[in-house]
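Appendix C: a fully annotated inverse folding record. The material below is reproduced so that readers can follow the format used throughout the book. The structure is listed first as tokens, followed by the designed sequence.
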């Protein structure tokens, strides 16, 4: 059975991808920061899957998470760097240093820590695909979300450089998932979020699309169907 690792799988796109991959007979490992949601998903998915409480920007959390996952399930075939946060809507000059740092820490430094923890084992095995979740706001911009745009444009650059570093049978891609009605979208769009697709519907086409990514996709900036 193939193994997918999904950061931020307690809500939104990550949760529905976890459910979708399990239904397609993948082994799922993943993490979130909410204890109750982590326990609920562990119970739902069952003991062969491994869902941890892990803050992706905490070095000790990531080390413990990687130690457990690599020693029990081995390196992932598919590594989905999905966990992210968005700043409350505000012009850049009104964003607090704390809010700006949090978005950078989770969306960029967290992706680096997870790559650092898992890619060496993928390289040793000689296969695997890394998908870094970008955004439409990793390729365009809007007012009010400058910190988030900063990180998603950063994800595009990080992923391009990573794709040039990986050995030939591995791949790294940046993925714009589209616009989906999740907690993150509601924070930004308010009630307008409800006119966008439900994450469970999104996952019906996104999971098979992700499942089919391979070495030939290395370096691509993709958009989910
Ligand atoms: N929804 C959209 O329309 C949209 C559009 C473009 C791009 N995206 C991207 O798609 C991805 C998923 O977004 P979403 O809409 O599903 O977001 P979401 O509903 O806000 O869910 C975010 C997930 O990330 C986890 N998370 C947040 N901070 C974390 C941390 N420090 N460590 C570990 N997990 C953390 C959350 O879990 P806990 O609560 O347990 O921490 C949650 O499971 C993100 O990368 C986002 O930027 C989404």
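Designed amino acids, in order:
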């Amino acid at each position: 059975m193939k193994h997918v690792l999904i950061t931020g799988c307690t809500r939104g796109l990550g949760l529905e991808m976890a459910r979708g991959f399990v239904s397609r007979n993948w082994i799922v490992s993943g993490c979130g920061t909410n204890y109750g949601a982590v326990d609920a998903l562990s119970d739902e998915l069952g003991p062969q899957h491994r869902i941890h409480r892990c803050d992706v920007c905490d070095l000790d959390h990531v080390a413990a998470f990687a130690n457990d996952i690599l020693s029990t399930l081995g390196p992932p075939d598919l590594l989905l760097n999905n966990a992210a946060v968005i700043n409350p809507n505000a012009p850049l000059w009104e964003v607090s240093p704390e809010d700006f740092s949090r978005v950078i820490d989770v969306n960029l430094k967290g992706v680096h820590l997870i790559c650092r923890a898992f890619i060496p084992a993928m390289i040793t095995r000689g296969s695997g695909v890394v998908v870094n979740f970008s955004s439409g706001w990793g390729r365009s911009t809007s007012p009010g979300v400058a910190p988030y745009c900063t990180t998603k444009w950063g994800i595009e650059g990080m992923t391009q450089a990573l794709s040039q570093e990986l050995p030939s049978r591995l791949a790294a891609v940046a993925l714009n998932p589209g616009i989906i009605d999740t907690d993150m979208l509601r924070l930004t769009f308010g009630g307008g979020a409800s006119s966008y697709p439900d994450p469970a519907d999104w996952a019906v086409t996104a999971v098979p699309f992700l499942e089919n990514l391979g070495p030939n996709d290395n370096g691509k900036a993709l958009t989910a169907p």
